[in-house]
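Researcher: We plan to redesign the surface later, but first we want a full-length starting point. Tokens attached.
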């Protein structure tokens, strides 16, 4: 007679969320991209579901209600309330991004939204930058109408690369880098002293010409100083959170980022050889 009370096997390895989080930093970049979000959902589907909902129910039992500030948006069952705070797909993509960048990452609706968020957070009186992306200069034009932000040019990029980090630290300046065309694992400006690194995820990270998003990776020192919390609070009122569809597409894209980056780099070498 069959029985549901079969003896439990002993000595088997059971992967827990804690064990995975401890092991992830030792894994290959590609392995991290595939498994960083394994324990996000309470169901067992390998491919994440798309959650278009913009409203979520509170717990029906009042005793189960938790203050929003104490919620973990990445723990099942999902305690999401409204997508300008958190939503299942964008939050899940941020978990993978955090693992790949090795630090906290805040996602946005576009690269320019990410740049705008950095400007709002820092609120500088002067900004030094190279020619860069024209859209970034457009954001500066808008901000300068509000606070008189002065734009100064950094013309010699070779000298800048050697001196920027130490010079910025010496005078108390905040150093940010637009690393859109140098995504992980190709380069990591945070390792060289950048305070925040911005990406237009629409390009390399998205990689399929079907999504618009941006992100800001924050140096661990700045995370401890409250930068991540401030960016999330300001994103809420700026209304620049990543959409659920983009979060879902972003997870798909991150799974193959290391393969696409390697192939694109190799193709570039062949073209310029």
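Model: Full-length starting sequence:
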């Amino acid at each position: 007679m069959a029985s549901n009370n079969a003896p439990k096997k002993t000595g088997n390895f059971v992967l827990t969320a804690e064990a995975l989080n401890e092991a992830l930093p030792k894994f290959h970049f590609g392995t991290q991209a595939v498994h960083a979000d394994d324990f996000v959902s309470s169901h067992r589907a390998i491919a994440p579901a798309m959650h278009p909902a913009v409203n979520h129910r509170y717990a029906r039992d009042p005793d189960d209600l938790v203050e929003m500030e104490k919620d973990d948006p990445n723990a099942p069952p999902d305690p999401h309330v409204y997508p300008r705070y958190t939503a299942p797909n964008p939050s899940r993509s941020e978990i993978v991004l955090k693992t790949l960048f090795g630090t906290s990452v805040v996602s946005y609706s576009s690269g320019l939204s990410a740049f705008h968020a950095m400007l709002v957070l820092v609120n500088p009186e002067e900004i030094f930058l190279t020619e860069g992306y024209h859209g970034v200069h457009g954001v500066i034009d808008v901000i300068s109408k509000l606070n008189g932000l002065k734009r100064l040019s950094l013309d010699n990029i070779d000298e800048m690369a050697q001196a920027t980090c130490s010079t910025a630290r010496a005078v108390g300046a905040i150093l940010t880098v637009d690393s859109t065309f140098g995504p992980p694992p190709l380069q990591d400006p945070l390792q060289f002293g950048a305070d925040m690194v911005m990406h237009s995820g629409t390009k390399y990270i998205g990689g399929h010409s079907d999504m618009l998003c941006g992100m800001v990776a924050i140096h661990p020192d700045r995370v401890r100083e409250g930068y991540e919390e401030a960016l999330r609070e300001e994103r809420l009122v700026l209304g620049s959170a990543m959409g659920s569809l983009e979060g879902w597409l972003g997870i798909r894209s991150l799974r193959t980022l290391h393969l696409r980056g390697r192939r694109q780099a190799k193709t570039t070498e062949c073209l310029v050889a």
